[in-house]
Specification:
By secondary structure, the protein is α/β, with parallel strands linked by helices. It contains ten helices and ten strands.
């Protein structure tokens, strides 16, 4: 649904045209935020980004670090980029960000309605690529295949067959949820969650245990690390799916509080 996507406008200027763009994008049913071309401000946006809209200006040279960051995020998370600027500004952006990552360049003066229509059409066609990412961590290949089968219609499912592989993935990627087994060789689920909570880059990634361990001692050991939930593998698949859906519904509700 549209309201699950945010269009992030990156602009040094905050004039009438930016406010007009913001209003039109909201009218189309999306969330929208305007940030400066600053890596810290852009990276602070934790919502599901449907598209980046870069609004060029005379100070395009000062946007270099932000453009590099946007290029990396677009490539890693498959987020489309649209630009608005003079021909020279668009050319300068294109020299930093590979052409295939920029879906369309718009020259000023821009037709706001046309721009929003293009973005809307693109997201309507390719929005499925922005499914929430769920990292499933389990040393059982059969369990990994089962969970992938249960969830892949709704979510983008990434599989890791060890705690070490999960940590390696998290070092360069940010899933929206981790489903974590407790009993694994070498690095067990509790140790994985401890590492997640102590790493600044991904300490706030939500984790739900999906495990066969149901004894009180095991459960209490991990509650202090504040997982989002504790599910048992013996549950019916429909119940596990429902619990994952409910988690994302709660996350979505927080956006509108």
């Amino acid at each position: 649904m549209k309201e699950t996507y945010k269009i992030l406008i990156i602009s040094e200027v905050q004039g009438y045209i930016i406010m007009s763009l913001k209003d039109k994008i909201k009218e189309a049913g999306y969330q929208v935020s305007v940030v400066d071309p600053d890596v810290a401000q852009i990276s602070a946006e934790r919502d599901t980004i449907g598209a980046y809209l870069i609004y060029g200006s005379d100070g395009i040279g000062d946007m270099q670090q932000a453009l590099i960051y946007l290029k990396d995020q677009s490539a890693e998370r498959d987020i489309p980029i649209f630009t608005v600027g003079s021909r020279e500004e668009n050319d300068a952006i294109g020299r930093v960000i590979s052409g295939h990552l920029i879906r369309q360049f718009f020259e000023r003066p821009v037709n706001v309605n046309e721009l929003v229509e293009v973005i809307d059409t693109y997201i309507a066609k390719f929005g499925a690529q922005h499914k929430k990412k769920v990292l499933v961590v389990d040393d059982s290949g059969a369990m990994l295949r089962n969970v992938k089968g249960w969830l892949e219609d709704r979510y983008q499912v990434i599989l890791a067959n060890s705690g070490a592989m999960a940590i390696k993935y998290l070092a360069t990627n940010r899933p929206d949820l981790v489903l974590l087994d407790y009993e694994m060789p070498v690095v067990d689920g509790r140790q994985v969650l401890e590492m997640i909570r102590t790493e600044t880059e991904f300490s706030d990634v939500p984790v739900i245990f999906l495990t066969g361990k149901d004894d009180r001692e095991s459960v209490m050991q991990v509650m202090a690390l504040k997982p989002e939930g504790y599910l048992l593998k013996t549950m019916e698949p429909a119940r596990i799916i429902a619990e994952v859906d409910a988690f994302f519904e709660r996350q979505k509700a927080k956006l509108f509080d």
